[in-house]
Fold this sequence. Notes:
Bound molecules: ligand 1
Number of helices: 13
Oligomer: single chain
Amino acid sequence: MSEPVQTPQTFPTRIFSGIQPSGGLTLGNYLGALKRFVQKQDEGIETVYCLVDMHAITVWQDPARLRQQTREAAAGFIAAGIDPKRSILFNQSQVTAHAELAWIFNCVARMGWMSRMTQWKDKTAGKNAETESLGLFAYPSLMAADILAYKATHVPVGEDQKQHLELCRDIAMKFNHDYKINFFPITEPVIEGAATRVMSLRDGTKKMSKSDPSDQSRINLTDDADTIAKKFRKAKTDPEPLPDTIDGLKDRPDARNLVNIYAALADMAPEAVITQYAGAQFGTFKPALADLAVAKLSPITTEMSRLMQDPAEIDRILGEGADRADAIARPIVDQVYDIVGMIRSRHV
Ligand code: TYM
């Protein structure tokens, strides 16, 4: 790849991130993304958060469920502390700049770059890739468009999105290089904290995911207090007590996952959790974790279901967010058309 022609420092700090409304939000989404989105907003940084419904349809979505899940995700964001006045909160399809820029990026990105994406490889492993949607293959190009339509400088995500963000940087560099202009920032991924990769409660070597067939493997933000407590009590562990140093968790993925979840929920370092529970049996640690999770998550769950009683209000918030998002993205994408040489002469 060519050298970057600029540094992100030349662009004002703006945060962008997105979540797919393709299923309920999980504890992984909450700790790896949502909780950190709220922190960034509360630090007073300009924050743009998007429910990426166009990414969701890269695999089949029932239309009525997609609409419901998009509203539910919006309710989850607000219940978790996203203030739609301070942050911009909207669904992707309402701002056409995303799809428009994605097309241009489809012509900048190379087939080889897309074929090397591990998520594409994982999703097609053991299957016939020929039957997957073209959208699934081009997914990272739309993701780069999401980010760069706002010239976002920082993107908070979980560990699993790292490679997609590297591709976003590659697209920005190639665009800047090909058109000889310092137009797009080279966006920084922000992957930090104890829970950048929350693992399945049934298998500490697998990511907690909304698409896992076992509901026991994950905590959903819609789970009630009893269900949350039960899932943590039944979480897979080994027979050893907790070690007295963090190194002692090295080959114990299930135990390490529970310690990391505790740390992220309590805003502690994993080392501090180990100091507090050194030598404790899981019979002691799991109920403490369950209590902590219920204390932190049930207010969110309750507020989410309250918000879901008024879907029209959620749609209104998303519409207002989309207007504000469009006001930023439209002029940027119009400039891109100009840079690549498109005639823009309509009288509107
Ligand atoms: P998605 O919808 O799979 O996940 C949304 C966010 O949650 C994080 N996450 C996790 N973090 C820790 N542990 C887990 N088990 C876990 N599961 C999910 C993800 O890393 C992500 O931050 N491609 C993206 C959506 C997207 C996007 C964007 C993100 C579209 N455009 C632009 C950032 C910027 C995705 O599928 O996330």
